[in-house]
Every structure is written in C-alpha cells, then in structure tokens.
Design goal:
A hairpin with a 7-residue loop joins strand 8 and strand 9. The chain has two domains: about 170 residues, Aspartate Aminotransferase, domain 1 (Alpha-Beta Complex); about 250 residues, Type I PLP-dependent aspartate aminotransferase-like (Major domain) (Aspartate Aminotransferase, domain 2, 3-Layer(aba) Sandwich). The protein is built from 15 helices and eleven strands. The model has no long low-confidence stretch (mean pLDDT about 95). About 45% of the residues lie in helices and about 10% in strands. Helix 6 crosses helix 12.
C-alpha cells in the first residue's frame, strides 16, 4: 500500500468510525450470529497473492460486523463498561502509526515521561496519596498478579524469585467471596496455589467482613500458615460492593500483610470528591489498580496501577540482560521493571488525549451522571410491584429480580433467566446476570460513554413489559 492508497483508505476508515458512532444506537446490541458462523464465512487458507484493501473493507462489513456485540451502544447495559471515545480512538491511531516499543526510557523517552506525568495526573484527580507511584498495565488482572507476586517476594525476603517457594512456608491470600476471578487465577499463577486463597464471608451489603478476615488470619497463623496478601475490592464485579479499607487495613498493618485494592471498575469514581468515602483507610494500602479503559472513556487497554513502594515492585520484576543495559539506568523509569511483560505499548497517549479533550470537570460530570442514572433505576425498581432490588447501588450497577406473587424461588430463577434472554434476543438492549445468595438476578450497568436517561427508561419499560408478558404466558418468549 503506497502513501496515496493509505490516505484514501485512512479517510474512508475515519469516516466509517464517525458513521459508526452516529448510528451504533440503531444496531442490534448483541451479536446474533451462531457459533462457527463467522469462521465458516472465512477462507480456510490465506491468499497466495495480494488483495485489494477494498475487499478487506467489504468483508469487514459483511462478515465481521454482524458478529460484533456493540459495547459502544448506549443500550449496552451488560457486564461492565468498556468505554471508548473519539479522542481516545484518534490517539490510538497515532500510537499504532508510531509502533513504539516502550519497554525502557531509551526506546522512547517521550512515552516513558508522558506515562509518568499521566500517572501523577490520575493520582491527583482521584485523591490518592502523594507517596504512590504509578504505571500503566494492560489490565487489572495483570496488575493484581503483579501485586500478588510483589507481596510474595516481600513475605519471603525477596528470595522466592530465585529459590522458588519450597522454603517459603505455606503462603495465604485473602479476598471476599465477591472478589473477581483474577484473584483466584493470580493465586495459582503466582505459586500460592488456588487452595491457599481464603474466601472471606461478606456483610449484608456484600462487603468483606473484617471480623471474619481477622479470625481467618489468626486461625491460619495458629495452623502454621503465612498470611501474605489481602485483596480488597472497590466495586465488585457482581454487585459492585465496596470493601471497608480502614478496618481491613488496620488488620493488615498489625499482621504485616500486603493490602492490594482491586478498583478496576469503582476506582474511577474517586474522581468525584463525594465518592472518596470508598478510599477511607487508603493510608494502609500497598497497591491499588483501576481501569480508565472501563469507566474513563479510554479504550482498552489502559489500567492504572499504583504502589506505595515502587522500589519493592522494581526489585520483584527487574532483570538486566546485557542488551537492555543503558547509560540512563537508575536515572529514569524503565517501566519494563514495573510488571510482567517486557514489551509495552504507548498507552499513555490516549489517556492524555482523553483527559485534555474532556477536562477533569467534564469527566466528573459524566461519571456523576452514570451514578445518578443507576440510582434513578434503583428507585424505579423499588417502586414497582413484583420487582426486588437485590444489592445496594453505590456506583453504576443495578441488580434486581422479578418475583411475582405465587411462584417459588426456583420458578423465579427460571423466569428471570427467560426474561433476560428474551430481552437480549430483541437486539434492542443487552443485560447480563449474576447470582445473589444463590438466586438468578438480572444486572444492568448504566455507564456506557453516551448513555442517557432516555436509554435507561426505554430499557426499564421493556423489562417490565417482557416480565409481565412472559409470566402470564407460562414461559413463552415470543414477545414482540
């Protein structure tokens, strides 16, 4: 592809993206393709000669797009937000064009220093302690794994990386029953063993019970275990519960246990001063992660990881082959030493574009509106007969259940599942589910970049209509 063709197709793609954002609201939110349908439409072998880029664009529209679930639709209420925005997309194009490897300062000084500054901006925007230093990871899962490994090294006097865990004793990790699956995965990958992840019971609001945590730790110490790390959550994936950092932190400080906070979703809400009650006790925290690529309109991947002791993080991950030795070693941040991968993308550029384009006040306004929409929906649910709110609404997620009179809890499980699937099959909205106290619960997230009150009200009207129709038709799902 020569420069003229690049310009031609580049303009076409930018125009396509602009049209997509203008029209995505009218597209079926959830992909309707059957398993294997997209793969079956693709040739079994690659072309032996070059093909026109026009054919690529044609197949993209005809084969790929029907199999895309539209996370950028304002009627996407499923899972969690994975927000993008025009300034983020444009900056991502520049990142792709540069193709920079940002593993050390020498390989792209501007990338390293912009990342430093962006992490300082985020630290100030969210009110985190000035003692924290930050790095951009690819995901909260990677950041949590980095925290677990660093906690492991501190607990073993930085010997387990070199000698293995055979002399470490049996290390334990603690997290609530609501904690994200990445904690369990990380416990396995980091060598603790999944059986050494202790699940702590939760309070009535689904937050970690500090009393139960303290009891579990003391019982483990008596049994010869070595408590190593506690993972608290700021906005659990299922119901967005918020663990109490102060009492949890006091226990960790007393027992010399690393405290990591998984704020993948909820941490972005710290941009709002009125939401910083979630961070009470942050002085006890050793590390925290939150994802601008979830709720701060910066497309995946961009996960902000902060640590109180950057030297300990670096000591955990640094390794210095001859080909990476530089004259600036020790004078600059080489972010390859701040996590697991060597290779690193220039993620800070899109974060810079988003923060500058929107400004802090506009970002705050958007996040505040998403929380307002969730609380509005919760009030509508509570005022409606036969609907039950199943968890407190702190952030942008509303968990609820349809429970008409005269049916059992098991029957209600099946009915709620049928309602959820029927709604999603329309293509007009997309919800997912969770289980609360073992019961099937519909789950609606009001945090897509461009979601407005009208989208939430339309979804709620559909939910009520389908719930009524399906309960009266004995399980029929063919509601128009």
């Amino acid at each position: 592809m020569d420069s003229d063709e690049f310009r031609k197709y580049g303009h076409e793609i930018v125009e396509w993206i602009a049209r997509y954002y203008e029209t995505v609201e009218n597209m079926p939110v959830k992909a309707r393709t059957a398993p294997g349908e997209v793969k079956g439409a693709l040739p079994a072998i690659p072309p032996t000669g070059s093909e026109s880029f026009d054919l690529f664009l044609k197949d993209f529209d005809e084969i790929i797009m029907p199999g895309i679930t539209h996370w950028q639709s304002p009627s996407f209420f499923a899972y969690f937000p994975a927000n993008s925005s025009p300034p983020s997309v444009l900056a991502e194009m520049l990142t792709a064009a540069l193709g920079a490897q940002c593993m050390i300062w020498e390989t792209s000084p501007a990338a390293t220093e912009l990342e430093e500054r962006m992490m300082e901006w985020l630290r100030g925007m969210t009110g985190l302690p000035s003692s924290f230093e930050g790095v951009i990871q690819d995901s909260a899962s990677s950041a949590t794994l980095a925290a677990l490994i660093t906690a492991r090294e501190r607990a073993t006097q930085f010997m387990s990386n070199s000698r293995g865990l055979s002399e470490a004793g049996r290390l334990r990790v603690y997290a609530s029953t609501q904690a994200h699956s990445s904690v369990e995965k990380g416990a396995g990958v980091a060598g603790f063993g999944r059986e050494n992840l202790v699940r702590i019971p939760v309070n009535s609001d689904f937050s970690m019970d500090p009393g139960a945590l303290k009891q579990a730790i003391e019982e483990d110490i008596s049994a010869g275990y070595v408590p190593c790390c506690v993972v608290a959550t700021m906005g659990t994936t299922g119901v967005t519960a918020v663990d109490p950092l102060r009492p949890v932190g006091e226990i960790c400080r007393e027992k010399n246990i690393w405290l990591h906070v998984d704020g993948a979703l909820g941490g972005t809400a710290l941009l709002l001063p009125e939401m910083r009650w979630m961070a009470d006790g942050m002085e006890y925290v050793d590390s925290i992660v939150f994802n601008p690529h979830k709720w701060m309109f910066t497309n995946f991947d961009c996960s902000a990881y902060f640590v109180r002791d950057a030297a300990g993080l670096i000591r955990t991950f640094e390794i210095l082959p001859e080909y990476l030795r530089t004259r600036t070693r020790g004078l600059v941040n080489d972010y390859r030493d701040w996590g697991i991968p060597l290779g690193r993308r220039f993620r800070a550029l899109k974060l810079w574009a988003v923060i500058r384009t929107y400004g802090v006040e506009r970002l705050q306004s958007m996040i505040r509106e998403h929380i307002r929409l969730a609380k509005m929906l919760a009030q509508l649910i509570e005022s409606e007969r036969n609907f039950i709110l199943m968890a407190p609404v702190h952030l942008n997620t509303v968990c609820f259940r349809y429970l008409p009179e005269g049916i059992s809890a098991d029957e209600a499980d099946g009915l709620n599942e049928r309602i959820n699937h029927a709604l999603n099959d329309t293509g007009k909205i997309y919800l997912t589910h969770t289980r609360v106290d073992g019961r099937y619960v519909m789950r609606m997230v009001t945090a897509q970049t461009n979601v407005e009150e009208k989208h939430v009200l339309r979804a709620w009207a559909m939910i009520k209509e389908y719930a009524s129709a399906l309960s009266s038709k004995d399980g029929a799902v063919d509601v128009d």
